[in-house]
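Service request form, structural biology core

Requester: graduate student, group of Dr. S.
Request type: structure prediction, single chain
Budget code: on file
Notes: please return the result as structure tokens.

Sequence provided:
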Amino acid sequence: MADTLARAGGAARTYRVDGQTTTALAHADLEIEEGARIALTGPSGSGKTTLMHLLAGLDLPTEGSVDWPALGERGSLRPLKVALAFQGPSLLPALDVTENVAFPLLVGGALPDDAFQAAAAMLQRMGLSDLAAKLPDELSGGQAQRVGLARALVVRPRLLLADEPTGQQDHEHAAHLLDLLLEIADEAGTALVIATHDPAVADRMATRWTMSDGVLTCEGPETC
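Core staff response, request fulfilled:
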């Protein structure tokens, strides 16, 4: 049987804003197994990012539980076991592109020479070598997004959570980026959860999860 990388049991996340309680995620039950290919769809504000942050261990549920049976405790997940490619700006502004991509490897204990060599190889593979010495504020939004994805992939994580990874790409770049993402994930044995509004991206995944007003529903060969 495949390892269970992440699991949620009745996981809910609520927020208090100006005395009002808002439910971002309502009692989700799910499992993510090794090799999963999951598209997480739904309108903006439906709870997709909240769920991704819980699965990455960046946030905690206010009810229920999230755990990582095959990966260990929450504090050991990042940067090597679970990687998150953010939707918005996430590069460290004082570091150039190569340093940004090498950063999680360095934090994870890699030797500098090995980390920078791996970063350069990933940038080359993703067609980003010409950006290697640029700072984040010299990049377009689409370029920064691709560099952020390279940073997530370079650690060869067991689980990659990608929040709208093609959202700032034109059609041609989006298709090529998705091809690369799936190819590298297959090679590394990385499970993927991709939050997306793009039907072309969702159609490439084996399983589809849908969020609506914080409620998770699932379809595909695997259930939640």
